[in-house]
Amino acid sequence: MVITDTGAVMTKRYFHAIDILILKGQIKGLRSFAMNYDLNYLSLLAARKEPTKHILKPEWLPILVTDFYVSADYLLTGRGRIFTKEVKVEEPQPKKRTARSQKTATV
């Protein structure tokens, strides 16, 4: 299959948006993203590593658009802002201490 330059650039924009979502804490990583949306992780990985050889599946696009507010216009054309809404940064939550860990800490 021949992937056009336009298709390869769209794929790069898709994974650029995912990278931003990972940095912002909205997605843990590519593997968890694939698992959460029942996507083939190896297909995602192949498209990411070689966008000129592996196709970005059209059914992957609505996930970012509907669940993460990524602009469809940006993904398809590269025009405009990446996000249609501001993506909030997740603050790391402190781990909850269990009764057992509290007992160990005081001993």
TL;DR?
The chain is an all-alpha fold and 107 residues long. It has 6 helices and no strands. The longest helix is centred in the N-terminal third of the chain and has 19 residues, at 5-23.
Descriptive report:
- This protein has 107 residues and is mostly helical.
- The protein has one domain (5-106).
- Helices cover 52% and strands 0% of the residues.
- It contains 6 helices and no strands.
- The longest helix is centred in the N-terminal third of the chain and has 19 residues, at 5-23.
- It is globular and about 40 Å long.
The domain count comes to 1
Task: Look at the helices and sheets and give the structural class.
Answer: mainly alpha
Report the order of strands and helices. Answer: HHHHHH
**Helical content band:** 40-55%
- Cα Rg: 18 Å
The average pLDDT is 86
Classify the beta-strand content into a percent band: under 5%
